[in-house]
Design a protein that fits this description.
By secondary structure, the protein is mostly helical. The chain contains eleven helices and no strands. Helices cover 77% and strands 0% of the residues. Helix 2 crosses helix 8, helix 5 packs antiparallel against helix 8 and helix 5 packs antiparallel against helix 9.
């Protein structure tokens, strides 16, 4: 127990003193996961909206599949992206393997079901009278869609934050396609995995505290947005 306490104190010192390695890893994690979240949101919020506003055979099955993929293993996503961007893969010529771009791609793909599914759920929560009122005023399908999206703007912000939380906490895909290269693709979770295996508990704990703090910050924002 004393060893854990000492490790915790040392970890706090690393954070408070602004250890360059800790700050570098934290900033890189935020940039990579933030970029992945923005990319995924730009693609899959419209995709989720298209699914919601469309009627086609198998729609319910598609929505169920999307919701099932919420818990897709990160290592499976990493494997898919690794195969796609490896030298023998269809995207091998892009030279993305073991780069931040590969990690952004993997994380964006990982959170795509979350972004899509929660977008559909958010739109499903819009009061029916809003759509009925827009129809009675002669609004087009596009205008109705815009009106409903405005109604769920705060819910969509929660969707994006949920995606970010999922992205920044993953580890499997990041290691597989990023390589955990120091100063280049090493993030909070991948560094924690490596440092723990090397016995650097204090450094790993410092990164863990930062990760928990980021998660707490995101949760607070989500809570406040849900009350608006």
């Amino acid at each position: 127990m004393e060893e854990i306490g000492a490790a915790f104190v040392t970890a706090l010192k690393l954070i408070i003193t602004g250890d360059p390695e800790v700050l570098s890893i934290t900033l890189r994690s935020i940039i990579i996961s933030g970029s992945a979240t923005i990319l995924s949101a730009l693609i899959f919020i419209p995709a989720g909206s298209a699914v919601f506003f469309s009627e086609f055979p198998g729609k319910k099955g598609l929505v169920n599949l999307i919701n099932t993929l919420f818990s897709v293993p990160t290592v499976f996503v990493g494997l898919v992206v690794f195969i796609a961007i490896s030298r023998s893969g269809p995207l091998g010529g892009l030279g993305l393997l073991f780069t931040p771009g590969a990690m952004v791609t993997a994380q964006a793909l990982l959170i795509s079901p979350v972004i899509t599914g929660l977008s559909i759920s958010a739109l499903s929560g819009v009061r029916p009278e809003i759509k009925d009122t827009a129809l009675s005023l002669g609004a087009s399908r596009v205008q109705i869609a815009i009106t409903m999206l405005r109604e769920v703007r705060y819910a969509m912000a929660v969707v994006v934050l949920a995606g970010f939380g999922r992205a920044i906490s993953e580890v499997g895909a990041g290691i597989m396609v990023g390589g955990n290269i120091r100063g280049y693709t090493r993030t909070l979770t991948t560094a924690m995995s490596l440092e723990t295996s090397m016995g650097n508990i204090e450094f790993s704990m410092a990164l863990g505290i930062i990760l928990i703090t980021i998660a707490l910050f995101v949760s607070i924002i989500v809570y406040r947005l849900q009350r608006l």
